[in-house]
């Protein structure tokens, strides 16, 4: 790539002046100076030798291809996560221990290897998903390249090359541009062939209308929109013909700068609020696991390290490697118990389900974490054109002449699209057009080069948007009375009224629009042999060239000062409402064009060949009326902004359009109130960048407006808001929006009007281009976050219970009640369905009446932590307790447990099972477990190892049952099951059934029972499981009641203090 791309990065994030320093400011120089600087003649172009020299200096006219991260680096990055690292360490240690135990062979070998292999599988799947997501990050840059022109018509060595590859252009090349051409590089207009030149550059600059270009220089310090003599790469010529001199290529063009900004924004993407919280939780979990593991080892050191005291000093140390390994395995089990392995999978599933819900509301989520980020959005930075407005010009006011010259008639025109059936004219009598309105309709229909067509249920303009809007107005006005019998007025066409006028008054010549007279005229022939001139243009200019005025009945009177002032007053009122106004006039007396029908031999035809004659032809006009046009706001936007205000979300409008238009739209849609003083809330992008304390401006409450904003301004605004701790959603549709979309916490692109560049840079795409869909998506995001918080708390509380179980086992010195593979099964499979089902909890009714949660809002506050510690301790007591009950009791709570014939021992014996070999006359009777009979003839002490299989099964079953009932507690953070019963979320009841079903499968399928080290249970044993598990609901109900009482009293005391 050329040097331009290499230099730009060093100039990024500077002021406009600094970013232009060191380059030739072609926009402020006349054509001769530009020719001298680039050492080229407009007539002959560059020589081939000079082209080759410049290509060595500047490189090809292409956008840089940034090398993405290598696949291995992306894979390694997936392990840069605290929870993942803990899992990895646990898997490696488990694998080593399994290998060590595997040397002994036997059945335990299968069980031992299941755990590390399952953990490795989880990590591999997680890495694959992460790499796939990140490898899509640079697609916006590829989409940007697609809007570049492929070919250019160039003059070199006095020869015209019609299809030179655009990548071969160099600074100094002379390029010819015609209607429909895509501009191949940033260029200085040096010669206008047509009288006018217009380009559509809204996707780059945010302007709502095609822009007139000139070859005259402008001020040095002008902004991108003000560079009227520069055409920008990627924009399109909609009118005119010219020659241009290439000034910037490749990465030095404006689109190249956008490319660079997108790349830089993609390098600085932050973690989502949820990811940050989970990372913080992982770090705390690491510390907790480490402390508990050390504590477990300290408690059990006496079992694998003993010594005698001689003269007060420890001697005769004895170390048991086998027991040391055993307690090390307990520590690993503790780590497995503490980590919610299923959490990443459940979060992904919940977010994926959330994307489906959002898709039903026309919000298509491209990146899963965006679903959660939406829930804590505090600021929406919205583009105006195409987002808050329709990006379709529409006539909103029609002003016609009254019964006398001192009276005007004003009609409000409804509708915001190019659909002729969208809205109507207020107080309009269809088919009763008076002479004055007929003339307005005729001029709007015939003095017009645009068209409207229907494409996929959408109406599209062809040509100038303002002219297309005029044709739509003609359709709403209808046909004159008595015209129905005209055969050409076919109802099958979209513009049947315009067609009728064009058939009735056939155009024979066109006086093209130019920037000096600011009007367009057509000469028409009505078939009577008498030509007429129809003119439309800037109201002041048309009025200045008019000497008469047409009244309602068609009569003509002199245009006096009173009538003129009345029209100018109406113009002023419309202009201050940000309407673009066009005036209409006509002329019947055309002495030079008598009997003219387009014939080149007619004397008048020579006058038309020279545009300098147009002003003299368009004089002594008869003024008939004017219209006000605008890019109207979407109808649903006002309510959406009200909803944002109620939800505590600020709306900031950032647009490339001019200040007056943007302010008028913002007042209309509710960003500002109609009479609000917005002098301190509305700035141009340039003025904002010159502020000393930009953050103070952004901290203002309510809405803000930034007009004439360039792409880097949008980026800087988003960056400053993020530094202030705001969670920023940025909407947009153009190329100029892409860098800010990439940088924002969540970028939202328009699906219909949006460019591919904007869509690829965004996290979410609106299928209907509707701002109100964002508000609906925010509500859905809040609901999803609340549900995610519910299942995260549920899973964490379950893990606390597992940790308590293992800790109590180690502290009491009893045999291991749960092995790592069982804990892994519970965390991944058994807990998964209920946790996922909690994602279907119905949303709160007032979810969009609450302020957004803070991005640093904790998932678990102190009270919730205390609650789950209490629940966790109960889970530990229940799972360990049922283990002890089976060994020490033949019945519990009236439930007979002696049916299997197992031997009862004392608690003292159970706690000191390691000394079994020294006990005298200890025997253990065989007992039944399903179809198996477990005996201990060879070694009675195996009763505490292989014989614990029934007690382990009871512990595992109690753990599963408690966690199922605990999922009911998670339906609401503080609400009782009496007010929010389980059937409000039928998916949860189904999930509980699935989890219990999976547990039955591993219990009653022999192969799986062997893998998990469990056996089938009898009916009485299941009664014991339920009796021990059910109290968890009662305990949490009591805790919720306490929580409601304390929070209620806290609210009341706060209200009293206020």
From TrEMBL:
Pfam families: Cation_ATPase (PF13246), Cation_ATPase_C (PF00689), Cation_ATPase_N (PF00690), E1-E2_ATPase (PF00122), Hydrolase_3 (PF08282). The keyword Ion transport applies. It is a multi-pass membrane protein. Its EC number is 7.2.2.10. NCBIfam families: ATPase_P-type. The chain crosses the membrane at residues 82-100, 112-132, 285-305, 325-353, 859-887, 983-1002, 1022-1042. GO terms for cellular component: membrane. Keywords: ATP-binding, Calcium, Calcium transport, Ion transport, Magnesium, Membrane, Metal-binding, Nucleotide-binding, Translocase, Transmembrane, Transmembrane helix, Transport. PANTHER family: CALCIUM-TRANSPORTING ATPASE (PTHR42861). It is found in: Membrane. The keyword Signal does not apply. This is P-type Ca(2+) transporter.
């Amino acid at each position: 790539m050329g040097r331009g791309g290499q230099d730009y990065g060093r100039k990024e994030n500077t002021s406009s002046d600094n970013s232009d320093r060191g380059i030739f400011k072609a926009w402020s120089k006349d054509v001769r100076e530009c020719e001298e600087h680039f050492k080229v003649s407009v007539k002959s172009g560059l020589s081939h030798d000079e082209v080759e020299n410049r290509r060595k200096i500047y490189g090809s006219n292409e956008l840089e291809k940034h090398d993405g991260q290598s696949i291995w680096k992306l894979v390694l990055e997936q392990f840069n996560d605290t929870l993942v690292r803990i899992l990895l360490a646990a898997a490696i240690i488990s694998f080593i221990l399994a290998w060590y135990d595997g040397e002994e062979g036997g059945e335990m070998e299968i069980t031992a290897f299941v755990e590390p292999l399952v953990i490795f599988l989880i990590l591999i799947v997680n890495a694959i998903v992460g790499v796939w997501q990140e490898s899509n990050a640079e697609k916006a840059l590829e989409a940007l390249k697609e809007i570049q022109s492929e070919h250019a018509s160039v003059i070199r060595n006095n020869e015209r090359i019609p299809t030179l590859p655009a990548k071969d252009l160099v600074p100094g090349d002379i390029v010819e541009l015609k209607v429909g051409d895509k501009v191949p590089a940033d260029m200085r207009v040096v010669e206008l062939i047509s009288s006018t030149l217009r380009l559509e550059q809204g996707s780059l600059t945010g302007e709502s209308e095609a822009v007139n270009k000139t070859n005259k220089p402008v001020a040095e310090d002008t902004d991108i929109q003000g560079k009227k003599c520069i055409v920008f790469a990627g924009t399109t010529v909609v009118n005119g013909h010219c020659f241009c001199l290439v000034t910037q290529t490749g990465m030095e063009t404006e689109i190249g700068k956008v490319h660079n900004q997108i790349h830089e924004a993609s390098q600085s993407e932050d973690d989502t609020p949820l990811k940050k919280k989970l990372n913080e939780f992982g770090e705390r979990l690491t510390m907790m696991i480490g402390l508990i593991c050390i504590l477990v080892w300290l408690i059990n050191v006496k079992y694998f390290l003993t010594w005698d005291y001689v003269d007060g000093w420890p001697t005769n140390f004895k170390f048991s490697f086998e027991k040391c390994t055993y307690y090390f395995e307990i520590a690993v089990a503790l780590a497995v118990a503490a980590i919610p392995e299923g959490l990443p999978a459940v979060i992904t599933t919940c977010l994926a389900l959330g994307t489906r819900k959002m898709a039903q509301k026309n919000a298509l989520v491209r990146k899963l974490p965006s679903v959660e980020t939406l829930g804590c959005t505090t600021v929406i930075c919205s583009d105006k054109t195409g987002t808050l407005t329709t990006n379709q010009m529409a006539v909103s006011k029609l002003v016609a002449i009254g019964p006398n010259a001192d009276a005007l008639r004003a009609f409000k025109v409804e509708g915001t699209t190019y659909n002729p059936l969208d809205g109507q004219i207020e107080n309009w009598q269809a088919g009763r057009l008076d002479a004055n309105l007929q003339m307005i309709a005729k001029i709007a229909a015939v003095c017009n080069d645009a068209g409207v067509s229907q494409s996929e249920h959408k109406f599209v303009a062809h040509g100038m948007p303002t002219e297309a809007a005029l044709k739509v107005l003609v359709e709403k006005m209808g046909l004159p009375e008595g015209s129905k019998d005209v055969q050409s007025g076919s109802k099958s066409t979209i513009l049947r009224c315009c067609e009728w006028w064009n058939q009735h008054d056939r155009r024979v010549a066109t006086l093209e629009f130019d920037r000096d007279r600011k009007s367009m005229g057509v000469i028409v022939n009505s078939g009577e042999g008498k030509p007429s001139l129809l003119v439309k243009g800037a109201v002041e200019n048309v009025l200045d060239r008019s000497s008469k005025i047409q009244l309602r009945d068609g009569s003509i009177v002199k245009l006096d000062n009173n009538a003129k002032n009345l029209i100018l007053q109406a113009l002023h009122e419309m202009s201050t409402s940000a309407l673009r106004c066009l005036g209409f006039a006509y002329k019947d007396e055309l002495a030079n064009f008598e009997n003219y029908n387009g014939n080149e031999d007619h004397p008048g035809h020579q006058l038309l060949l020279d545009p300098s004659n147009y002003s003299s032809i368009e004089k002594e006009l008869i003024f008939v009326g004017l219209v006000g046009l605008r890019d109207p706001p979407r109808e649903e936007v006002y309510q959406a902004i009200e909803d944002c205000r109620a939800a505590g979300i600020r709306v900031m409008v950032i647009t490339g359009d001019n200040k007056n238009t943007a302010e008028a739209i913002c007042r209309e849609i509710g960003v500002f109130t109609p009479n609000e003083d917005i002098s301190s809330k509305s700035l141009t992008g340039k003025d904002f960048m010159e502020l000393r304390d930009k953050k103070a401006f952004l901290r203002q409450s309510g809405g803000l407006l930034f007009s004439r904003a360039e792409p880097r301004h949008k980026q800087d605004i988003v960056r400053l808001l993020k530094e202030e701790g705001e969670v920023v959603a940025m909407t947009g549709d153009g190329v100029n929006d892409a860098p800010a979309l990439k940088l924002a916490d969540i970028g939202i692109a328009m699906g219909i009007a949006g460019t591919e560049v904007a869509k690829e840079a965004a996290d979410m795409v609106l299928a209907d281009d509707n701002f109100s869909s964002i508000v609906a998506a925010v509500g859905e995001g809040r609901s999803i976050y609340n549900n995610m918080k519910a299942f995260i708390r549920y899973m964490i509380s379950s893990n606390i219970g597992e940790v308590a179980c293992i800790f109590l086992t180690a502290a009491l010195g009893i045999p291991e009640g749960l092995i790592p593979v069982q804990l892994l099964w519970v965390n991944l499979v058994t807990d998964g369905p209920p946790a996922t089902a909690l994602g279907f909890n119905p949303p709160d009714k007032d979810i969009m009446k609450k302020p957004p949660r803070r991005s640093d809002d904790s998932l678990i506050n102190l009270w919730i932590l205390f609650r789950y510690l209490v629940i966790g301790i109960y889970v530990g007591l229940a799972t360990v307790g049922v283990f002890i009950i089976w060994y020490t009791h033949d019945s519990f709570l009236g439930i007979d447990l002696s049916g299997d014939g197992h031997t009862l021992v004392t608690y003292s014996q159970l706690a000191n099972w390691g000394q079994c070999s020294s006990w005298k006359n200890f025997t253990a009777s065989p007992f039944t477990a399903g179809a198996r009979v477990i005996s201990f003839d060879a070694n009675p002490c195996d009763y505490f190892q292989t014989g614990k299989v029934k007690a382990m099964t009871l512990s595992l079953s109690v753990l599963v049952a408690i966690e199922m009932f605990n999922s009911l507690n998670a339906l609401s953070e503080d609400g009782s099951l009496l007010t929010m019963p389980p059937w409000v979320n039928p998916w949860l009841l189904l999930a509980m059934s699935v989890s219990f079903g999976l547990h039955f499968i591993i219990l009653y399928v022999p192969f799986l029972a062997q893998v998990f080290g469990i056996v089938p249970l009898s009916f009485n044993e299941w009664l014991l499981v339920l009796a021990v598990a059910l109290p968890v609901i009662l305990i949490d109900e009591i805790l919720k009641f306490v929580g409601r009482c304390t929070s209620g009293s806290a609210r009341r005391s706060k209200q009293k203090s206020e």
